[in-house]
Amino acid sequence: MKNRSNLVHYVILMACALVFLACAVILVKTLVDYSKANSVYEDMTLNADETQAIPDENDVIPERILSLMASYRALKQEYPNVVGYINIPSVSISYPVVQGEDNEYYTTHLITGEENKSGSIFLDFRNSTSPRLAPNLILYGHNMNDRSMFHNVRDLFTEEIFRETLVEYICDEGVYLYDSLSVYVTDTDDPYYAYRFYDEAEFAAFFEERAALSRFAAEYEQVSNLITLVTCSNSATNPNQRFLYHGKLIKSYTDFGEEK
Description:
Elements: H1 2-42, H2 63-78, E1 82-88, E2 93-99, E3 121-123, E4 136-140, H3 159-164, E5 166-171, E6 174-187, H4 200-212, E7 226-232, E8 241-253
Parallel strand pairs: 2-3, 4-7
Antiparallel strand pairs: 1-2, 1-5, 3-4, 5-6, 6-8, 7-8
């Protein structure tokens, strides 16, 4: 009887050891993925003039905008699959943007094509790559535990940060600036991902609906194109829950001359 009891204890101990080993392997792989992804994306960070990218009433292109565009063009030469770049200084989000043939591939792949849990920041595959032609430019990114990718979207739920945030989106045709319109928690049943609208009236209704959902009221004088940032809330009880941020287009700079 005693030998049987010892055997049971031994089996339980071995099972616990195997579970611990498996967890350790998963943890190490996760940390390696974090490190690899951060290293890749740090090398792609755009260089920008430190001044604020405040729209100029005289249509003079600020130095910051010029430096962002020059840096983006250099990045694009090295990584032709890049379709844009999202830069939000107020919450330390700064990443290249890619677009796949679906909305799955880049959830598990870096822009280099390497498989990695961090994935990439990617544009909805149905969107035009031109913010001018996309009334709702939709970007997705993971909410990573190491505060990378779109984790810091949650900081936009702080009213002071929400109101001071200016989103810079750089792409082949220029630099687009978006001011905060709306931030809220929703789920995948919500049609926040609408990208095509029958007419201006339908889009205006969508715009106003998104503004009304916001945790903080934001003023706007007119309806304008949107940028939408989507990330998981990482809710253990509701895996379909999402953090949403919408910015309204307030200025674009597209006259940079011929690309060198």
